[in-house]
Please model this.
Amino acid sequence: MSARIAVLGLGEAGSTFARSLAVHTAVTGWDPFAAAEVEGVRLAASGEEAVADADAVLAFTTAAHSADALTTTIAAAPRAAVHADFATAAPVAKVELADRAAAAGIRFADAAIMAPVRKGADRTPVLLSGDAEATADLRAILRDAGYLVEVLDGPAGTSAARKLLRSMLVKGLTGVMVESLRAAEAQGLSDWFAEHLVETLAGLDRPTLAGLLDGTRQHSGRRIEEMEAAAEMAEATGGRADIARAVAEVLRSVATDGVPDGGRL
Amino acid sequence: MSARIAVLGLGEAGSTFARSLAVHTAVTGWDPFAAAEVEGVRLAASGEEAVADADAVLAFTTAAHSADALTTTIAAAPRAAVHADFATAAPVAKVELADRAAAAGIRFADAAIMAPVRKGADRTPVLLSGDAEATADLRAILRDAGYLVEVLDGPAGTSAARKLLRSMLVKGLTGVMVESLRAAEAQGLSDWFAEHLVETLAGLDRPTLAGLLDGTRQHSGRRIEEMEAAAEMAEATGGRADIARAVAEVLRSVATDGVPDGGRL
Model:
């Protein structure tokens, strides 16, 4: 496959994809802010120029700029080009983009990157959903460059839902780390806590995770008090406890809404 | 060491400790709600009777009942008895208990259980702080029964602070799991997400954890949008997003307050 590819947005993800795709095929890049060269990639003077002869446009923008990127593709790309939106956005937003693309004769794919894009790493897992031909074409392009591509049987928004669930998990965990490390710092316990955190999190396995859910089922009442005590401790030194307070709310809801089935874990 | 021990509160933790201590020494237990036998433990008719000749009183109550347990010890235990409070509470609450105990001639220890107490498990790590003689005596008692005891060089509240930081981490993670598993269920993605969750969390190591903090430092702006999109998705199906919203707040605070030093990880 020797598709002409345009990459809109040359931040961390965009430049990584552009560089790895350029080893196999012609890639034109454009970014309103990034003037830096990307190895093997021809830089265009405008988005419209970048997409003018593209078979596939890969848009790596934030959700706020997804619509602008699609506007560029609709304005200047050949009809029947594939527009792949890699932004992390709500499924409903992906559906809106897909509808706009379809009305303009552009084939739309909802793409989600499911692991951190490390510099030069090309074994990154990517989920695709949307137009069947568009996702098949994109899969071929991305696989040539070494990406681990899975096409989901579903409309635009299907990949986005999985990506956002992953975000709730990974960014949620990260938020918990940031808040608790800050509280530890305020207690003069940074060194001890950083080690405890690594030991605890690096030691997680399936039975331990299932045990956390079971424990929540049994002890949610006591844990509400525990999280409130933790929040008081953090706030007593002028710190924040947004997440600890939110966890207390979630624990309160267990009485009425239960705990999701841990048996699956 | 053949101390006479009273255990107040025979829930999961209290009964586990009482049972394992009773293998080595005389243990009297009392619980206003639990009438169930605990192997090897003499059940008293009242808290006062339980502590009447105790060298050490181990109180396993919720934070809300810690003061009641100490009142029982002050009312009926021999002077110079050790009162160990195992409740998970704010450090300031432990300091108040220690002051009350000291005024009454009772030696106080702030005790924290640092891992789930599984049925019959006796390798549970316990942190002790407070009166030096009291913590030394308690350490001897608990070590005889197989507990992994660490005495911290600090007043009452020192153990509690570490325990609450652990709670922020472990219950925070559990809250994230509950909220994201619920959202997955609402999207019809329970099975996929449960597997993804286990793979992601069971695969954590020190570099990955440090990478999560580094990524937050670099991309907090984009991640605020991401968490808001995730919250919208969860709420669109009538679900909750307390933690996702709180994580967005924490990410907002990164611009002014920074990210705790990930270098220590």
